[in-house]
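Extended Data, panel c. Modelled sequence:
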Amino acid sequence: MSAVRLVLLGRQGAGKGTQAVKLSEHYGAPHISTGDMLRSAVEEGTEFGRQAGEIMDRGDLVPDDVMVGVVTERLAKDDAVASGYLLDGFPRTVAQAEALAAMPNGDALQAVVNIDVPLDEVRTRMQLRARADDTPEAIDRRLALYEAQTEPLIRFYEERDMLLVVDGLGTVDEIFARLVEAIDRIRPVL
């Protein structure tokens, strides 16, 4: 079976993290999240990791060029080269998507899977998590920012016929089954 090389998209509260873990186990591809990549690069002391660490220590957002460097380093590791990857949290912008397409191993991206959950439902799910930073105002701000950043990215991948939209309503297992079905439909072509 060939390796999968996918990007996972979905609003906060869509269950993306839960599904990414299950997909990683199912396909044997590493789940690579932005947060994990940054922490790993900082711990390893790579050039981009040192830059990212300094930026995060100041409380600033990591700029595209540093994020692209961290992702490039991560996708070059043996597990991602041999087994593929499930990218979670990258790309977030069209500029990052274009950079991904130019990376070694990033150019092998097969599809972008958007776990689609309506706004009202993710808002409810986030409120039920009861995290301190999940105030109604903070949730609305994060969701608005996600929409503003992600809409152009979704169009970018739609235009390239790489977008798979999967219904994110239902049980964890029902959603997982839909994801596997959508991904496996494209696999014979890969």
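The CA atoms of residues 4 and 153 lie 20 Å apart. This feature is highlighted in the accompanying rendering.
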